[in-house]
Amino acid sequence: MTKKQAFTEVIKENQGIIFKITSVYTNHKEDQQDLYQEIVYQLFKSYKTFKGNAKISTWMYRVALNTSITYLKKEKRGGVRIPIEKILTYKTEQEDTIIEDRIVLLHTQIKKLNIIEKGIILLYLEGKNYDEIAEITGFTNTNVGTRLSRIKEKLKTQILK
Amino acid sequence: MELEEMKSLWSNLSKEVEQQKILTDNLIMEMTKERINSKLNKIALPEMIGALVCFAGALFILANFSKLDTWYFITCGIFTISYLILLPIVSLRSLFKMKNVSLDDTNYKQTLIKFSRNKKRYMMIQKSSIYFSLLLVFTAMPLAGKIINNKDIFFESNIWYIYLPVMLVFLFFFSRWGIKCVNNVTQSSEDLLKDLEKSSSSN
């Protein structure tokens, strides 16, 4: 398998991660498409030098989250967007509308958090433990814990409002 | 909503998203190729166009510099040329620095710190450019009059009676709006940096 094939396999395998990250860091469909494309491009660039020291998912979260931080909305609007409408118009197929509503509510509230909190809660919800979150974000385990309980309180208050 | 409920809702969402395998090899390579080909699109276009206009202006004054025959026109000329050349260079350099933060060998916190610092620096440059543009308004008009019509409008008080109040009102509102925007962005970067530095010292 060539490096290019290996890369496309990794992306296909983890496309859900990119979708979830882009949906948290953007507010509009066009921005999400741009960010999605930018993340794939940054991963492509970084894959050439990826030596496998970290887990592939850790590397992927790191590059995708860093790209989301440095993503500047207005400058990318001029570029060509590859039609990936289907992915980005994801609609849950949940039959239970209560769960669907709760997911939408959670998503809306996460978007209101600041950029540090967004990254930490996203990794937590993705099932990462404190060690993994600390490795990806650069905060200590204790700091991750403290921040998570603050985020929990914040989300609770936001949702109750 | 408790964290456990959030986790379970997120896992529901994940399952749904994971099932939708829509990306193909071609689509992925098309996305990367488009980004490689449109490298120039990533450079902030308005800033690039602005810089070109400034350089053209500087070149125009430079080409007609011999027409500036008094000390005050020469001073205005030197100030305007320096402004039109230096500011776009400093501004673009700062913009590139902000955008070229390494993404694969730094963690989230390091990227946030670097990006916020560079962003703050960029916004400070934008702020000083607003102040300098106030001065530019008072030097550009006499220069244009001298170069194009060979008129010394410093001694034509009628023009100043109209030009000055109009420009002052315009600049007052423009700079108030511009500085407010810059201050908001700078403040949010500062808050973020404070939060990150606080966590560094408590670690």
From TrEMBL, chain A:
Source superkingdom: Bacteria
Keywords: Sigma factor, Transcription, Transcription regulation
NCBIfam families, alphabetized: sigma70-ECF (TIGR02937)
Family the entry assigns: Belongs to the sigma-70 factor family. ECF subfamily.
Organism (species): Aureibaculum flavum
HTH luxR-type domain sequence ranges: 127-154
PROSITE patterns according to UniProt: HTH_LUXR_1
Protein name: Sigma-70 family RNA polymerase sigma factor
InterPro entries: RNA_pol_sigma-70-like, RNA_pol_sigma-70_dom, RNA_pol_sigma70_r2, RNA_pol_sigma70_r4_t2, RNA_pol_sigma_r2, RNA_pol_sigma_r3/r4-like, Tscrpt_reg_LuxR_C, WH-like_DNA-bd_sf
Automatic annotation (TrEMBL), chain B:
Keyword annotations of the record: Membrane, Transmembrane, Transmembrane helix
Transmembrane segments: 43-65, 71-90, 129-148, 160-179
Keyword Transmembrane: yes
The protein's name in its UniProt record: Uncharacterized protein
